[in-house]
Design a protein that fits this description.
By secondary structure, this protein is α/β, with parallel strands linked by helices. It is 54% helix and 10% strand. Helix 13 crosses helix 16, helix 13 packs antiparallel against helix 17 and helix 15 packs antiparallel against helix 16.
């Protein structure tokens, strides 16, 4: 396949969980869409740099570290929680400790003062405080790795870069923007007043560079991050996978960077926005108690629903599946269903999280695509068992004897290159998901209209080659979506 992204260095900022906090339903879209774009752009030849921008800094860590220091017997490390606290994960334990710390902070002025002093110590680089902080970061990364591994996401610790890593750059950013006249003082704070956007009061919208108390916030960190990615990482294209509610922030951020001369015509910065995940009631997805749904719990729900569907399907076909095989297939189907549900619609739209619908064998679902792959694999396996040779070359369209279903399948498979180029251009993975669904449907039509193994040669050879082409193409599409292509189901 010709490379459409060769020589393009793409920095992709996606997933972005917070240290010491559970990943929840709100992290799915950034993580899954970002992973798909990484796969597609890499496949097309781009030099992709993954950046997992972790929330690892702030006043809340002073409170948490102080509480941990004063309560050393409270378990929160991954080798403690299973046997002692029965927390589902390291960050669940840390979140529990943070809640306790918050209660004590609000009720005990002396503890509140010690927590504030701990923040100062953390920012000043106190060795003991930093040691605890680093351990919290490492334990959180251990948990993130478990989530990414289960989801099949191509992120690891080496792709993580916390907000803290930009701390030393913040003063320089503020100074540079001030000296260039881009940042001005307003009500004691240092801000960049937009020349393009006005607020509800008709005044220019402001990007906060430095607060009145001299502190920095995420606006400044994002400015430093953007400058770093351009000047140090040499990005030609920077993609931010963040939900649509942050549109104004990124508009102001990119405007400030252009005015500062960092973001030139040679560098493209894009806010790759997306909609929300809704519950069956059409409202933001929550638990019955109104809390945010843990990501791992959501995946468990999907896998459980898939296991029911797979077991019922096996029973209907008279196929016996042992428990380990059933669990493995259900895991592939459930995770694939979650990812496909996210990727199959335009990213800018909201979608309803419905495990029953997304794990169905019929319709536009990930399970349907996976099942199509198993049927293709089954045909090739049975051909091999009969000693039949599968030609390496795909059939040509100029064959006069081609059936309409054969021709349609060939044309569909041949469109993958154009589809991937479109995804790279408009950053809409649903185009690839739609291609995979169209290919699976074209195969179903072909399978019903054109016998393969029962046909005489040379028709059988041609159709076996087409089955092999379709299987490889569908497997490639699923891989680029980040979805497993099982051989049995």
């Amino acid at each position: 396949m010709a490379s459409s992204q060769a020589g393009v260095r793409t920095v992709i900022d996606y997933s972005g969980p917070n240290i010491a906090k559970e990943m929840h339903v709100g992290h799915i879209r950034s993580t899954v869409i970002g992973d798909c774009l990484v796969r597609v752009l890499t496949f097309l030849g781009s030099d992709v740099l993954k950046q997992n921008h972790l929330g690892d800094w702030g006043t809340q860590f002073g409170m948490l570290i102080q509480y941990i220091t004063e309560n050393p017997d409270q378990p929160w490390r991954h080798d403690e929680i299973d046997s002692v606290s029965h927390q589902p994960s390291t960050v669940s334990a840390l979140d529990t400790l943070y809640r306790e710390a918050r209660k004590q902070f609000d009720a005990d002025p002396a503890f509140a003062d010690r927590s504030r002093q701990r923040v100062v110590a953390l920012q000043a680089g106190d060795a003991q405080t930093l040691a605890v902080w680093r351990e919290i970061v490492a334990e959180s990364q251990f948990y993130f790795d478990r989530v990414y591994d289960r989801l099949g996401i191509q992120l690891s610790a080496r792709d993580s870069r916390g907000e803290s890593s930009y701390n030393d750059l913040l003063d320089d950013v503020a100074t540079e923007l001030t000296e260039s006249g881009i940042a001005v003082t307003s009500d004691g704070a240092l801000v960049v007043l937009s020349e393009e956007v006005t607020g509800p009061d008709g005044q220019p919208a402001a990007l906060m560079v430095r607060k009145r108390d001299g502190g920095y916030g995420y606006d400044t960190t994002d400015l430093a991050t953007l400058r770093y990615r351009i000047t140090e990482l040499g990005a030609d294209r920077i993609l931010y996978l963040v939900d649509s509610r942050q549109a104004l922030h990124f508009r102001l951020l990119f405007e400030a960077a252009r005015r500062a001369g960092w973001l030139t015509d040679d560098v493209q910065a894009v806010h790759v926005s997306f909609g929300s995940i809704l519950g069956p009631d059409g409202k933001p997805f929550k638990t019955r108690s109104g809390e945010t749904v843990r990501l791992m719990d959501l995946l468990d729900q999907a896998v459980a629903a898939a296991q029911t569907v797979v077991a019922e399907g096996a029973e209907a076909k008279g196929t016996a599946l042992d428990q380990d095989t059933l669990q493995r297939i259900a895991e592939q189907a459930g995770i694939g269903a979650v990812k496909y549900a996210d990727l199959s619609g335009s990213r800018v739209k909201d979608y309803v999280f419905d495990t029953e619908r997304m794990t169905a064998f019929n319709g536009n679902t990930g399970v349907y695509l996976q099942y199509a792959h198993t049927r293709l694999t089954s045909i090739l396996r049975r051909a091999a068992e009969r000693g039949l040779h599968v030609p390496e070359r795909a059939p040509a369209l100029d064959g006069a004897a081609l059936e309409p279903a054969e021709r349609a399948l060939i044309l569909t498979a041949d469109s993958l290159t154009d589809v991937l180029d479109a995804v790279a251009d408009d950053l809409e993975p649903h185009r690839l998901a739609g291609f995979c669904y169209d290919l699976a449907r074209a195969f179903t039509d072909f399978y019903e209209a054109c016998p393969v193994l029962a046909s005489p040669d040379p028709v059988r050879q041609r159709r076996l080659a087409l089955v092999d082409l379709t299987r490889r193409t569908l497997a490639q599409g699923l891989e680029l979506l980040g979805i497993a292509a099982p051989e049995r189901m």
